[in-house]
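Follow-up to my earlier ticket, as requested here are the two runs.
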Amino acid sequence: MQSHAKIVIVGGGIMGTGLLYHLAEEGCTDVLLIEKAELTSGSTWHAAGQCPNFVGDYNLAKINAYGNQLYPTLEAKTGQYVGWHAPGSLRLARSQADLDWFRYVRGFGANAGFPMEIIGVDEIKQLNPFLVTDGVIAAAWTPEDGHADPSGLCNAMAKGATQMGAKIARYNRVIAINAQPGGNWEVVTEKGTVIAETVVNAAGCYARQVAQMVGADVPIINMEHHYLITDPIPAFVERDREIPVMRDSLTAGYFRQEQNSGLIGIYEHTGAVEAWAPKGVPEWASESELFTEDLDRLMPWLGNALERMPVLADAGIKQIFNGAISHTPDGPPLLGPVAGLKNFWLCCGASFGIAQGAGCGKYLAQWMLYGDADINMTGLDPRRFGVFADDPYLRSTVFQDYCNTFVTPLPSEELPAGRAQRTSPLYETLKAQGAVHSQTFGWERPKWFSLDGRDEDYSYHRNNVFEVVRDECLAVRDRVGIMDFTGFAKYEVRGPDARAYLNRLCANRIPSKQGGITLTHVLSDQGRIQGEMTITCIAADFYYVLSAASAETRDLDHLIQGLQAKEQVSIQNVTDDWGLLVVAGPRARDLLSACSTADFSTEAFRWFTGQAITIAGVPVRALRMNYVGELGWELHAPIAQLTTLYDALWQAGQPFGIANFGLYAVNSLRIEKGYRGWGAELTNEVTLLDADMERFIRFDKKPDFNGRAATLAQRDAGRSIQLVYLTVQAGTADVRGGEPIYSDGRCIGVTTSGGYGHRTDQSLGFGYVAIAHSAPGTVFEVEILGERYPATVLAEPVWDPSNARQRA
């Protein structure tokens, strides 16, 4: 076995071989994949092999669609049989919520590259004459969906990779992975040691054991999953056309034709079982392992499937598979770096690995080789989980996700598992005032306040909290609002080289004057957006850095790994040490003046500056800025004193009409102000120029910032896309992100986020379009839940475009 490799991949299932193939296709062939047994012998070999285009996430839709485009070509490219069948798929709708979801997902296809129709019962019966359609009102028809032999697909990508020059070592278990002083990794195997620049953990159900070799862990739980194959069905034998793959919430699963037999798979809503419990991980000697079948726990859903397709009920059972599949807490796979480790990556956690293996490999290969991928990786990055994802959290959320596999997801729905992992001291206080919380990176953050005890009716349309959110927004616009924003990530950067270091890392100029604040971005070598930070100069050698709650570990990596050995800088994550209240609205100055002797006048406390002051006896870092577009301050206080600060402000605010507000209101307020969102408008797919953010770049500063050369090159060469700010003549639903944008019947772009502006009474959104359609005043159409609505590009924010209110 070779002694050195640029990249070592641990694990030879569909995820590992998918990555190997695409690294080689990009020209990186100094790659060694190490598999402890035979390829596919973990969970790949026993998978049912479905490859749907229908998936409820825009970026996963691109991943799935790519696989469905590649898989039919692999046999011709490599000579390896893959058994590709393309009968299409039908997903059955039994409610209006199902239909709304289908219409939303159908919009993904215009940009992801797959066709989808919503068809009626008569058309369903034409495609599958064996189906009993009781309770069915429609179906999503994706004609390019298929299924294949999982082992064939895996071996085809492995064969293709080796044909291009990559290497595979079978029957060779990795027994240790050790970090080397120079930054390389020592990969110790049963047959020798390999020194690698980069290691990728693609070990599937073994991923946690492999991660523990480097002192890390992986947020997955291995779950048992059943499917069964029937005896041959005469009606299938007589047909010359295969029925579509069927998916149905009533059956909590899928059923299809497997040659001349039937195949039925169930994701039971209750009674799910962890594989290899209580240990939860396989023994190293495990190979092609299945578990004892338990058909009783598949009831009543298996019975529902047989009633839905009586032709299956008449056949005997030929074979039952009960194998392990790894699941993440939120569903998507883990693609990206491990927090705190350099050049150690994950490519695992795919519960639908056959459908996603090729696409995951393609986009992860791009990220590894070029620093960016051509899809938004935010929702796939393993660093979306932190230390809050302990074993109880993992088990409760993974079981929830598994059991909800065939439950229609509703927008912003709050699910019960894994809650209250991280709370501010105000959590119970705000709950008592009606706060409904949402979770971000483990933090419980107020989403809206139920002042009359109502529960939210989750819907793809405006719902019964629309007017509640309106009232919160108007309180901020007209009086003064207060919000607990403690979950923001917070860091302290200190040292004599702190400013020079941050100037090199970030695109904007870092303030040198005490109290100065800047909004800035971390860019890749290609100039694409990696992170967004707000940086305050506390002293000449001390900076207070803020970023999105969900980016806490990701941005900590940017800060630490961006540091050069010669730079005298210390970086500390102080997120848990500081609480944060936002006070905003035209009466914000009056409220703060009632609680503090500090001077909050514009002359004494300018916009985008910070000061250390005292409010109600609490020491506070007060930053005059906010994300809602009003006169206001962020108040950062020692977290142990946050309740004291809130209580004083709440009491003093009563004469001013103070009101609590939450994240729903924040989205409405920021969209009126035209503020972009990290992870939506600002992603690794785009540059600051694409995002119309050139005002946050300082090309003339020294030292040169990372990504400067690429950004200048793009500015000189021109661009193909542009972020636009839209007003939409919408119906009962607003832009969410992922909706296609059309001009003259042709798809020209995609929305990224949106909402309703309650002060301006407008439906608003952002989207990326072909640059020819980006001029202010341009009119095109946005498709929302299957209907196209006129949208107009705006030249400036609909609320306070001159920032007069914030400067007041």
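Run two:
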Amino acid sequence: FTFLVSNTCTEALKNLLVKGYRDGNCVATAKLEELKGLDKKSVTLLVDVSSQKEMGELIDLRFECVVDPLTPASNGIVEHQVYNKGKVVPIGFTKMVSTIFGLLPSDPLETRVVKERLIFTDDGGLLKPCSTGQGSSLKFLPADPNLKIRVKFTRFSTVDGKGALRVYTCNVPSDLSRKGLVYSAYLMGDTINESTSPITFTSQADDGGILFYFESVSSGEIGSGWVAEVDLVPPANTLTLTDVKASQQGNEETGLVPLQLTIDNVSSAPINDAQVVVVSGNKYVFDEKIAGPLAPGENHITTTRKIALPKATPVRLRVYIEHPSDSEGSDNEKLVYAVFDRYCIPNPTPIQGAMLSKVKYMQDSLTLSTTRSSAMSYNLTKPLIVYKGEGTAELTVTPTGKVPADYSVALWIDWNDNGELEEAERQVAALAEGDASPVKFALDLSKNSGGYKRARLMVGSTSELNSACNAPTFGNAQDFILSVASSAFPSKGDLELASLDIGKSGLKLKSDQPITISVANHSNTDYEGTVKAKITVDDLAPVEEELNFIGANKLQAFTGTKEITLDSKANLSAVGLHTVTVELLDNPVVENNKQVATVSCIVPATDGLFALDFKTQKTQDEWVDLTSTATRLNSSLTAMSVEMVFRIDKPQFSTLMLAPGFKVYTTYNMAGGIPDNCIAMILGGAMLAYTPAQSITPGQWHHLTIAMDEIENGFFGSDCDLAVYIDGKECTLTTEGSGAPKFSGQLKLCPKFDGQLKLFRASKVALGPSDIKPFELVRKDDGKLPTSYISEFAFNEGTSNNASVSGIMFADIHASLERLTQADGGIWMPVKDVIGGFKFEHQAKQEETSPNNYTITFELGSPEQVKGTITTSVPGATVTYKDAK
């Protein structure tokens, strides 16, 4: 023990004596000749803390510094306690280690070789309780490979739900990984005490070892722990588990199923206290001590504990028996499926031979289970529906695999609902040898009641298909539900109007657009005859046509389909939305009779320029949908630009563009130091950028360009080079974080915005100052865009149009019909102030003499020819003087 002795006085101290006491007796001393004032020195004492007690002991220690008696001063005293655990072997202590994920518990993963008897306890030993936050593994291995580890627990007590010990007597890998292992016992709570018998575990592993894993919660009282004796025993095989059954019949939705075990005691003496352990997957189910001795020879045992199972839901169990006298585990284990059902349970079912894959009625089929196991297969979720009104039903059953000679498929249906599949309810259909082929069963529905009926199918040797309760040696057995509806087939004689085609939305649609429909036959019989169709175009009076399905036009049952171009045409030439409705008349199933199609006819206005006028700051019920453009602004692009010409009515926080990873706003009264009347952007949800204050002016048209270059979207983040131009001039940007645009096929314009929108343009390059055309259109005279551009929407279509057009691409305008068609105060606003200004030599004044007509006055004496510039404020505007552009 090392101590730091400190002189708190200013004067030197001499002849200091440091003394160590064990249980009140002085057992060690050390002398300091001198300790100067305010000085410190370390002193080491060797103290015997060994123990002769096998179970260990708590040793009280006291250390004091005796000051020179001639110099009055206080003595320094330190008390300490040492826990010597004696010859006890505690399970390892879980420590916290530092990782890149922070502090995490580290399993000590100890393996201890046992040469002689020892005592095994929790990490607190015999005298202290278990620790919190544990997750520790300890494996005992015999020093002699011809022996087995045996562990007898004489005490086990933890707080229920706070600390537990798992015991693994099976083969365990050398790294002590428990993945895929099933524990033999899960000890928790006040399990073993003075009033209970000890519990003994003997290794059944090839290496003779046993693994223990202790886990406890991170806080609170865990409990006093455990005490166990570990020793070595020679291998022995006294018990063999020869058979397990786990099935029970009953009418309830959930039943309790006991286990019936056949155990062979191969020794010459009765064996007491054998234990049954039941596990499902990696989950411990229960263990039970077998009441009474197991006599030499065969013993039949039924467990008192039962497993609660839903009806017709097999559960795979691993069942094994344990006893300290039996260390050979290879014959102590069986796998069994536990089943509860109303009907008899053929258990086990074959895992080899032909399979049953499908049962079909008309066009409705039920796919059967393809899982191979020794458990009965139940397909009870979806019933197969037949119709009593049809009188009979033909079921087609499809097996798979190779079929030996003299194989058949048997079908039982519990027609009388008595819970038994009787001989009178059986049908058999023979299979041809070779590749399996479908077989058919004819059902007489007229003599049987309706409702749900349990049905059972088996495929196998014909001689083994006499009872629904006994599975064939090879083949398959499956149950399903047959639902007998009281009606006839509901689609009998039914035709479906399957599709309606009137073309696509576009510019200047036809006044005689063809109407094409397809008709399908859903009936179980061929359709030969005529049917009338009613055609309605917009608000016009409907007309009727007769459709001919006679002779060569006959529609086959279930699969027949015919496409027909009607004699009637649709006039879609008027601007706006058009609706065409086609309906089959006098057809039995109303839901199949009708199809509705809509298209928009875009007819651009010829009487001036327009812009979209939004008032959506409060309502947010109008916007422009640019899905067609957003799908092309995808992650494969490493550069892109978007442009917009807009005007805000007043200072506001508004949304100009909105996509999942690309948001553009105008600002006003913002938090976080973002100035007013600037453009702010969020890219990829991680990058914020904004322009200086007063970058835009309310009431004034602006041309906004956002250019993005070097776009990167990687696993560790995204980034891009961002530039913003307003009216062609680059803005200084303030940025926080990094990010890149992400549209994910979505883009809205102006969903929260009071103002006007005149232009949107997108390109697949990062535009620079020389590339930007402020307030101009880039579309060529032939109507085509330069190759680097994706779309250009001028929003010049005008009243009643519900979309804007860029080549073959559309920008859908979401607004009410009233707003779209309203000439005055609607969403389409005529643009009148198209001139930004005049600047000529010798110019005296300018005045607007009528809408968009201006008169320029020059100084007296000006020359006949002058030079100057005319600036337009919106794209698409043209200026004429004396009929010349």
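The only thing I checked on run two: The domain at 610-830 is CATH 2.60.120.200 (Jelly Rolls). Let me know what else you need.
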